[in-house]
């Protein structure tokens, strides 16, 4: 891993209604957003408060659309138990999951925007799932999750990042340069939003690994970058992705 990683992306589209069969333009909009968000090229990167400007990171990972696979289905929602990843269960099998990031785009249901598999799991289910209404920033993309940040967040998990609040009150994300958050933040918190955890730090509500609206999350940190890079290094769980 000498500073740059390029990830081929296979987008698997499962549609029951015509609107779920999203356009290539909508798919490409998501790829473009990933390339911005993971390279410090997002237009809102300059909104990071000066308190955090020393830790905001250009991850240096790029994404290339490798293939789009489409399948019509009688299922109107897929849940979160990986059925969409299996042709035997009506879905689409992953393509080369050890060298390509598979994204399944379908209706999940239950108010879920997306979900991811962490590194180290079964390769047949590896990848991320994003609801078609929260994918990309055009076509059927729906506010306030219409800026493609659901995929940025889920791919953060796929690269081993935890939620910034550590999934428990004042929990840890195992990243030293992110502040300790009370819990998940939603909507678009006004700045500064103080934690009541030890030391009452200002929370980094604009981090992609919080739960704020798409327009209100626009940074990763250097510490998060280290966690992501470690999985692509020799001996790491995604070493097969590094050239
Ligand atoms: N797994 C989270 C959920 O489904 C994704 C949150 C993404 N947040 C966002 N602003 N797009 O709720
Ligand atoms: Zn998450
Ligand atoms: Ca932290």
From TrEMBL:
State one molecular function term (GO): metal ion binding
Q: Which UniProt keywords apply?
A: Disulfide bond, Hydrolase, Metal-binding, Metalloprotease, Protease, Signal, Zinc
The UniProt record lists the Peptidase M43 pregnancy-associated plasma-A domain at 114-231
Q: Give the superkingdom in one word.
A: Bacteria
Q: Which GO terms describe its biological process?
A: proteolysis
Which family does the record claim for this protein?
Answer: Belongs to the peptidase M43B family.
Q: What is this protein called?
A: Zinc metalloprotease
Q: Which species is this record about?
A: Flavobacterium sediminis
């Amino acid at each position: 891993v000498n500073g740059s990683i390029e990830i081929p992306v296979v987008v698997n589209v499962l549609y029951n209604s015509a609107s779920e069969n999203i356009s290539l333009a909508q798919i490409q909009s998501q790829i473009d957003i990933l390339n911005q968000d993971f390279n410090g090229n997002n237009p809102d990167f300059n909104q990071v408060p000066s308190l955090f400007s020393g830790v905001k990171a250009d991850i240096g990972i790029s994404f290339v659309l490798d293939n789009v696979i489409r399948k019509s289905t009688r299922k109107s929602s897929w849940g979160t138990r990986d059925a969409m990843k299996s042709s035997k269960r009506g879905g689409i099998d992953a393509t080369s999951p050890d060298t390509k990031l598979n994204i399944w785009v379908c209706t999940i249901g239950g108010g879920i925007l997306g979900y991811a598999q962490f590194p180290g799991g079964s390769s047949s289910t590896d990848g991320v799932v994003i609801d078609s209404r929260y994918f990309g920033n055009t076509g059927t993309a729906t506010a306030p999750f219409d800026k493609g940040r659901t995929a940025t967040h889920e791919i953060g998990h796929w690269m081993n990042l935890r939620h910034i609040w550590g999934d428990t009150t004042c929990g840890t994300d195992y990243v030293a340069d992110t502040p300790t958050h009370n819990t998940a933040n939603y909507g678009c918190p006004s700045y500064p939003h103080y934690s009541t955890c030890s030391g009452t730090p200002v929370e980094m509500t604009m981090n992609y690994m919080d739960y704020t609206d798409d327009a209100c999350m626009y940074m990763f940190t250097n510490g998060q970058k280290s966690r992501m890079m470690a999985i692509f290094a020799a001996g790491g769980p995604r070493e097969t992705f590094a050239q």
